[in-house]
Structure formats: structure tokens, C-alpha cells
Design goal:
This protein is α+β, with helices and mostly antiparallel strands. The protein has 3 domains: 152 residues, no CATH class; 41 residues, no CATH class; 118 residues, no CATH class. The protein is built from 10 helices and 10 strands. The strands form 2 sheets. The chain has a 6-stranded mixed sheet. A 4-stranded antiparallel sheet has the order 1-2-4-3, covered by helices on one side. Helix 4 runs antiparallel to helix 5. The radius of gyration is 23 Å and the shape is globular. Bound molecules: zinc ion.
Length: 326
């Protein structure tokens, strides 16, 4: 098996609408095109032994152990490398977890593999190490996962701080940073700066969305957004304070996906009249309250007024219809 190329994608891409930072590798399976995981003696058991945490990967099965189930049944090495590259990054403390593997058209045994990264260099390293791990497991050798994970851990202060901000601050890590920055006040200033840099509060919220799905398999529908974003009620500040999104654009990407997933199917069904509705973004632990205006629907237009964001699922009022988006 050989990695033909490794590229870094940073921005819009054909693999995902929401993931912008991807490692893209082209992998040639060579003779392993004829050898999926179930054809290699002991592969499944050894993978489970050396990387037990892959248990949490749901894969296409959609439930815990889903990926292991696929390995047991038989899946190709490209797909396995995708999952291992993600898991190695997770173990090193990165917030990743999305990937896809697809055959290259017309080239037998050659695969496009994409998976997300936080640190470019470490993402590329994860790809190479994932291939090493697979080779070791095939050859019944200990891949030494701890050593790889240590290599992948980011040494840069900025990355360390970001990681801490995402997790509970734990004393050991805090003292690591204090050693680098000097004293506690410096650290607080540094974190403040990093947070404000990450959240681009001046970014515009989107004004328009064309739904991916057609209404009655026929008509494209446009959604126009209005935002309750005034000086007294700064929606952007609420997004910043009440959610874990790192930017206005990250929030609007997720909301657009959520709206795409409920509309237009719900029109005329659950959404039959103008009024207030709410979307619970389960994964983000967040509720978005909006009102919908169907008056222009004849012209294939819908107005959505986004009123506010609330942490967690806080809507149980009877006059609001809730959608749950996972
Ligand atoms: Zn998978």
C-alpha cells in the first residue's frame, strides 16, 4: 500500500459542505484491493486490541461499535486508514471525527480518503502513521500507539490553549501553560485575546439560502433570513456567549444545514402556518428560536426570522413546535 499524495484542503470543497479543513490523501491499495479486513487472519482482533477506543466510531452503522462491525464483516484498508487517522488525532486531543473514503473512478484499488484536522502538519502525520499502524497490524506487530499519539500532540501554545478552552481545565495542563507564559494574568490575557480572535463578531449573518431538496420534487425554494440583531439584542453576541461556535460563520453553516434537513419536507405538514418554531441542534446543545413567514410561498420564497439562540433544549412551551436535528 502506498500513499500517492497528501494534500491539505482549507476552504470550500467537494467533500463536505461544513468541513473546511481536510486532509486529502490518494491511497493505492496494491494487492490489498483483493484483501479486505475479513480476509486477513486476526486483523479484526488485533485492531480491537491495539485501538480499543475505535469502539466509539459509529460509521455507517450509526451506533457504537459500528466501525468494528464493518471491519469484522470485511472492509477495505482505505476505509480503515481513514478511521485510524481520525482516532489517532482524537487520542492526541484534537477535535476531529469526520471522514470519507471513495474509490477513484476508473482506477481499481486507488482511493480518495478525506478526514478533518485541526493542525495541518499533525493531520498529515496522522495519515502517514495510520498507514504504518495498518501495516503493523497486518504483520502482527505492535504499532505502539502511545508513541504515535505523543508525536501527534501539538506542542504549540496556541493549540494547547485552544484545547484547554474546549475541555475542563485540568491542573496539569494549566501548569504547563503557566510555565510558558509566566504568570496567571498573562495567561488570562492570552486566552481572552485568543477567544476574541477566533470569534469574528463582525462577520455578516447569511441573508439567503437555496434549499438543497426540491419541494414536491419540483420547485427550488429560497429561504430569506432576517436576524433579530440589534444594539439592545445582539444576536451575534448571544451566539458568542451562549454557544461553543468559534465564529458567526460556523454557526450559520450549522443552522443552514439544519434548515436544509427539515425543509421543504415539513412544509404543509408540521409547518402549516406562520408562527414560532424552534430547532434543537442536539449535537451543539443549543436551541434556535425562529418565526416563519409563508406569505410569499407562492413565489417559492420563505422568510425566516431568527429570534434568538438558547443554550440547551429550553423550549417546552406548548405553542412552539420543536424540531430535533442530530
Ligand atoms: Zn466509516
Amino acid at each position: 500500500m502506498t500513499i500517492k499524495s497528501i494534500n491539505i484542503i482549507n476552504g470550500k470543497n467537494k467533500w463536505s459542505n461544513t468541513k473546511k479543513k481536510l486532509v486529502h490523501i490518494v491511497l493505492d491499495l496494491g494487492s490489498y484491493e483483493e484483501k479486505p479486513s475479513n480476509k486477513i487472519d486476526g486483523f479484526y482482533d488485533r485492531l480491537k486490541k491495539y485501538l480499543p477506543s475505535l469502539k466509539s466510531h459509529r460509521c455507517s452503522e450509526g451506533k457504537e461499535n459500528g466501525f468494528f462491525y464493518r471491519v469484522k464483516k470485511g472492509t477495505w484498508m482505505g476505509h480503515i486508514i481513514e478511521h485510524i487517522a481520525l482516532e489517532l488525532q482524537t487520542l492526541a486531543g484534537y477535535n476531529t471525527g469526520w471522514g470519507r473514503t471513495r474509490g477513484v473512478k476508473g482506477k481499481k484499488g486507488v482511493y480518495n480518503i478525506v478526514f478533518n484536522y485541526e493542525d495541518e502538519e499533525k493531520g498529515k502525520l496522522a495519515a502517514k502513521e495510520a498507514l504504518n499502524v495498518v501495516n503493523d497490524i497486518i504483520n502482527d506487530k505492535d504499532p505502539n500507539i502511545d508513541k504515535i499519539v505523543n508525536k501527534l500532540k501539538s506542542k504549540s501554545l496556541k493549540e494547547t490553549i485552544k484545547r484547554i478552552l474546549r475541555e475542563e481545565i485540568d491542573e496539569a495542563r494549566l501548569s504547563d501553560i503557566l510555565r510558558v507564559t509566566g504568570n496567571k494574568n498573562d495567561l488570562h490575557n492570552y486566552i481572552e485575546k485568543e477567544i476574541s480572535k477566533d470569534f469574528e463578531i463582525d462577520r455578516e449573518l447569511p441573508t439567503q439560502l437555496t434549499l438543497k431538496k426540491r419541494y414536491n420534487n419540483r420547485d427550488k425554494i429560497k429561504v430569506y433570513f432576517n436576524w433579530y440583531d440589534t444594539l439592545e439584542h445582539s444576536l451575534k453576541r448571544r451566539i458568542k456567549e451562549r454557544t461553543n461556535f468559534k465564529s458567526v460563520s460556523e454557526f450559520s453553516d450549522v443552522l443552514k444545514d439544519a434548515i436544509n434537513s427539515i425543509l421543504p419536507d415539513e412544509l404543509g405538514v408540521t409547518i402549516s402556518e406562520n408562527g414560532r418554531y424552534a430547532i434543537n441542534l442536539t449535537e451543539n446543545n443549543l436551541t434556535v428560536v425562529f418565526s416563519i413567514n409563508l406569505d410569499n410561498f407562492e413565489n417559492k420564497q420563505i422568510d425566516i426570522n431568527v429570534i434568538t439562540v438558547l443554550p440547551k433544549n429550553q423550549i417546552d412551551k406548548k405553542n412552539i413546535i420543536n424540531f430535533f436535528v442530530y
